[in-house]
């Protein structure tokens, strides 16, 4: 099957042959669904890739600079925008950093609600990754299936937070919405639905000989190289490194939950696909435990609740937290803090520097897709040109998240 | 570590904090690598115009060492704002390659010995502007195009 994703941008680009090296330069993207919002410069010899240069920055929006002019709490919606498929984890990572800086501790119930939303978000992110991987391999059925199977989980988020994708649900010191009534039943329905669907995915796609032939042994990254290049998330675990921030540096209540970290040792595209499916199963386990263990109590810290006006307290009793002045006037003491959160695609690292004012002095965000950039320069060379989409799809790369 | 670096401390909000001068940076970095920190999480800068200095900051962590697995080491290096040159650590940790390119285009930090010090995210027109420094004012640029209404002020 001819791959439609690799097209030269112009005739000139095709004819740009380096005489000494005999290489042809191809441009994948930037205005094509096959590359996302980025351009991949590929030099080929015959149909073997020799050199790859990722040209990123087409969707760079300067989140780090923009946050320097915003209140700590007003930066929350902006920070989660770049990783649009996995907003809750990005939101959580930022709030973790602010809480560390300001010395706020969320109540246990809020921590559990955060964990539940974060795991729902991880499932959404992995399903999206599988959908994109499917369409890159040319199987549009799986693309449709996986995108449709995100819907029950997006609906859960909507019911919980009022927004399908951009929830901005986590604020320093708590969460903004109480769980709806009978929420456990609806989560259980969605989880059972997805479990049944996994069987169908396996039959149609995961064990499909065509998919196996196109992905097994393709784009292999060894354990040593994965450590040397510093790749993150499921891509790292597919190369045999047992690294999960939820276990290694537990945040929220992950140390009270029982789950495994799936690790595979092949390091190829197929392993990266299987890891994602295994991780969704672990996420389901976490959600079920968290729903069972969730304690009663407040969803914001006591000091915040006590300072609310009677009207806001009335609204709180209906299950909604209003942003009050104790958040908008939040000015952490001078210092610096880091936070690490295991997002769907990998580690989110945020570094905040405060100078004692109400605005962040310096905010640094390192997203998982950004750290997976070495896949282009180190894994694609040596592969066939037709395998470039397969490798690109398997690493679950999301250009807006990398560009920030 | 202590005889090599200028200050070594442990901050519970960050982790291990090491700072040193640019001359000693490579030696300190190699010592940290031998101690088990095998990859770079983040490379960035922090601009302090009032003190007239610019920090280059590396955050390190470890995949292979189980004891260090969840820990972060912050290696910072004080540079002058006029001539921020520092040895590149991409030779020590290959995972710093892309991020040092970003720190170069955003802060103008010159990483000596970097294999490929080009711009990464920004377009050609913004070369030499150093947008993440504090003297680059977004508001000034915005006011040229858009006058804010009173409601938003």
In short:
The complex is a heterodimer of chains A (404) and B (153). With 404 residues, chain A is an alpha+beta fold.
Please describe the structure with a list of short key phrases separated by commas or semicolons.
heterodimer, A: 404 residues, alpha+beta, Cytochrome-c3 Hydrogenase, chain B, four-stranded antiparallel β-sheet, three-stranded antiparallel β-sheet, 12% strand, B: 153 residues, alpha/beta, Beta Polymerase, domain 2, five-stranded mixed β-sheet, two-stranded parallel ribbon, globular
Largest sheet of chain B: 5 strands, mixed
Just name the CATH architecture of chain A: Orthogonal Bundle
Question: What string, H for helix and E for strand, traces the elements of chain A in order?
Answer: HEEEEHHHHHEEHHHHHHHHHEEEHHHH
CATH evolutionary superfamily of chain B = NADH:ubiquinone oxidoreductase Nqo5 subunit
Q: Beta-strand level of the residues of chain A, as a percent range? A: 5-15%
Strand tally of chain A is 9
Query: Can you tell me the number of structural domains of chain A?
Result: 1
CATH superfamily of chain A: Cytochrome-c3 Hydrogenase, chain B
CATH topology of chain B: Beta Polymerase, domain 2
Structural category of chain A: alpha+beta
Q: Estimate the helix proportion of chain B, in percent.
A: 10-25%
Strand arrangement, major sheet of chain B? 1-2-5-4-3
In this structure, how is the largest beta sheet of chain A organized? 4 strands, antiparallel
Main CATH class of chain B? Alpha Beta
């Amino acid at each position: 099957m001819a791959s439609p994703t690799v097209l030269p941008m112009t005739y000139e680009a095709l004819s740009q042959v380096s005489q000494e090296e005999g290489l042809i330069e191809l441009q994948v993207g930037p205005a094509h669904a096959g590359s996302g919002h980025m351009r991949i410069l590929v030099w080929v010899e015959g149909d073997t890739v020799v050199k790859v240069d990722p040209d990123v920055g087409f969707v760079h929006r300067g989140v780090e600079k923009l946050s320097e002019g915003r209140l700590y709490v007003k930066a929350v919606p902006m920070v989660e925008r770049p990783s649009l498929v996995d907003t809750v984890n990005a939101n959580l990572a930022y709030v973790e950093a602010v809480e560390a800086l300001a010395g706020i501790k969320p109540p246990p119930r809020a921590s559990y609600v955060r964990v539940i939303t974060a795991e729902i978000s991880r499932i959404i992110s992995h399903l999206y990754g599988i959908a994109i991987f499917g369409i890159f391999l040319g199987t549009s059925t799986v693309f449709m299936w996986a995108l449709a199977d995100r819907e029950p989980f997006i609906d859960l988020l909507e019911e919980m937070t009022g927004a399908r994708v951009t929830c901005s649900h986590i604020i320093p010191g708590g969460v903004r919405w109480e769980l709806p009534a009978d929420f456990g039943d609806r989560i259980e329905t969605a989880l059972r639905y997805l479990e049944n669907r996994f069987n169908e995915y396996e039959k149609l796609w995961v064990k499909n000989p065509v998919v196996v032939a196109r992905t097994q042994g393709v784009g292999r990254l060894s354990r040593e190289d994965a450590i040397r290049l510093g790749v993150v998330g499921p891509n790292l675990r597919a190369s045999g490194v047992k690294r999960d921030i939820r276990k290694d540096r537990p945040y929220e209540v992950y140390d009270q939950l029982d789950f495994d970290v799936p690790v595979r040792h092949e390091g190829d595209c197929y392993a990266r696909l299987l890891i994602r499916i295994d991780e969704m199963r672990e996420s389901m386990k976490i959600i079920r435990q968290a729903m069972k263990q969730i304690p009663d109590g407040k969803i914001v810290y006591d000091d915040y609740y006590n300072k609310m006006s009677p009207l806001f307290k009335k609204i709180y009793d209906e299950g909604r937290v209003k942003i009050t002045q104790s958040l908008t006037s939040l000015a952490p003491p001078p210092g610096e803090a880091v936070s690490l959160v295991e997002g769907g695609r990998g580690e989110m690292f945020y570094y905040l520097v405060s100078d004692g004012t109400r605005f962040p002095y310096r905010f640094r965000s390192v997203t998982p897709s950004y750290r997976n950039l070495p896949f282009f320069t180190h894994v694609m060379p040596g592969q066939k040109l037709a395998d470039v989409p397969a490798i690109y799809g398997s690493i679950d790369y999301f250009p807006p998240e990398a560009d920030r | 570590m202590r005889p090599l670096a200028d200050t070594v401390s442990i901050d519970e909000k960050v982790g291990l904090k090491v700072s040193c001068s640019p001359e000693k940076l490579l030696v300190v970095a190699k010592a940290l690598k031998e101690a088990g920190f095998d990859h770079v999480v983040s490379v960035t800068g922090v601009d302090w115009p009032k003190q007239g200095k610019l920090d280059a900051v590396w955050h390190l962590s470890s995949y292979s060492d189980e004891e260090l697995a969840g820990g972060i080491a912050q290696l910072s290096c004080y540079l002058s704002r006029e001539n921020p040159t520092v040895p590149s650590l991409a030779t020590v940790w290959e995972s710093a390659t892309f991020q040092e390119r970003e720190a170069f285009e955003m802060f103008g930090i010159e990483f000596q010995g970097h294999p490929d010090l080009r711009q990464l995210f920004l377009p050609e027109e913004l070369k030499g502007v150093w947008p993440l420094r504090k003297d680059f004012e977004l508001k000034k640029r915005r006011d040229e195009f858009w006058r804010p209404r009173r409601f938003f002020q």
